[in-house]
Structures are given as structure tokens and as C-alpha cells.
Structure prediction request, 170 residues.
Amino acid sequence: MKRPATTPRLLTVSTCTLLLLVTCATRAGADPSDDEFALNGTFFAVSDGQYAKTNDRFHDEATVTSTWTITTDCADFEDCTGTVRSDQGWTADIQYAGRLWKVVRDLPDWEHCPDGSTAPGTQKYTFALDDNYPPNVLVGFDRTVGPSGACGVNQWLDVAMPFTLTKTRP
Prediction:
């Protein structure tokens, strides 16, 4: 007897679904207190100004280096939150969402206008592990955006730089 054309496809989907459920159940069943998913320790942070883009055009900016102390707690492999403390004097929340770590902070006087006034900016770091780097290095972007209309210009200022975070000690 000939099998219907859909049988292999359904079998494949069922097999993949089963594998996904087993994988998720194994990871979700892990004890969150073992810090398997948490990002904790001291890190060397680099926002590489050499490859910065301002409003989507390459434009050299100053490279910024700092030391971050990160403390996170995870309920499971998808739900992690915590705090970043930088040696530059700021503290911000960190969360894991959509396979990326995210740190967002407000910069009150970020953009300096020709008339001497300033405008705020929102800085967002997004980073993750990358198979092309050693396991102690996370890579992503440092992006800061100011409001449209700041300094009398009807466009926001958007500065993005490649970002690396290297663990220096637990």
C-alpha cells in the first residue's frame, strides 16, 4: 500500500516537535539556582568607535572602554534579569529576551546643540554569544538615539558601534 504524500512531512514535523519538547523540557527543568543561564561576573566592555555609524553612515567616534560588573538571576533559560554596574559610574538593568542580552539607559545631556543647549539620548546595548568568538566573549551593538527635532533638526541622531563584552573573572 502506498503512503499518502503527507505522511513523511507529518512524521518529520512530529519528530521535530518531539525533539524540541524534549530539549525545552530538559533545559526548563534545570535548577535555576545553578546559574547555568545567568550572566554574572566582571567584564571588559568595548564600544568600537573605529567602525561607528552616525545615521547609517560610517563616522569615526571615540572608542569607549569600561569594566562592567554584571549580576543576573534566571527563572529559566528565557527569563533572566539583573543589574550592570559600570566603572564609569552608572548602573542599569539588564534582561535576556529574544536570544539577546539588553541593557538600556537614559543619557540626559547626550546631544550638544550649536546654541549651547542639549538633548537627551537613549543608549541600548544588545549582545549575545557568537560561535565565531571564544565562549567568554559576547558581541553586539551599542546604539544611542536622540529625539527627532533636537537641536532644530527634524531627524534623530543615531550613533551605533560594534560592541564586545569579554569576561575577565567570575
In short: The CA atoms of residues 37 and 77 lie 6 Å apart.
